[in-house]
Amino acid sequence: MFYRELIIGFTTIFAWLPALILTFLAAFVFLMGFAAISEGDYLIATTCILLSSGGVLGFIALTSLCWGLHISFLKRLIFLLAGVLSLATVIYLGTLDPTSALYLSYHPLVVYLFYSPFVIGLFHIVLHCYFWVRLPNKSINTRCAR
């Protein structure tokens, strides 16, 4: 029980809090996607909307892990995957070109905001997959077995 509480504490400090800050950024990027639609740039619009939606879904999954929001196991795993994939895409795009407007260096604030939720999200995906394998296989017709 102690390790579970320790993991939840580390997740709250190093993943949920940065994800809360990044959720405000995701809301801005979501609106920027709709602005790109009005300008006719559909590739940028699709990218912005998908990345921000994945970020918000990842935040919902982290909220479920940290604060006890009741989401089903599989849905939380899918939300975690969406958030981690979205964050991995942002990290990839941010480290691709050092002259771009979004450049992610290894400054401690950047590491805290972007890299630590990514690593902890991967850790929770591995934990979810581990617990999913350990779940007992239940028959579909359990009510009719009498």
Give short descriptive properties of this protein.
146 residues, mainly alpha, 4 helices, 79% helix, disordered C terminus
What can you see in these coordinates?
The chain is an all-alpha fold. It has one domain. The protein has helices at residues 2-39, 42-67, 73-96, 108-134. The longest helix is centred in the first third of the chain and has 38 residues, at 2-39. The model is unreliable at 139-146 (pLDDT under 50).
Summarize the structure.
With 146 residues, this protein is mainly α. It has four helices and no strands.
Question: What topology emerges from the helices and strands here?
Answer:
Blueprint: H1 2-39, H2 42-67, H3 73-96, H4 108-134
Instruction: Round the mean pLDDT to the nearest integer and report it.
Output: 88
Major β-sheet annotation: none
Structural class: mainly alpha
Number of strands: 0
How many DSSP helices?
4
Molecular shape: globular
Low-pLDDT sequence parts:
139-146
Strand content: under 5%
SSE order: HHHH
Helix content: over 70%
Tally of individual domains = 1
| CA(first)-CA(last) distance | 36 Å
Q: Tell me the Rg in angstroms.
A: 18 Å
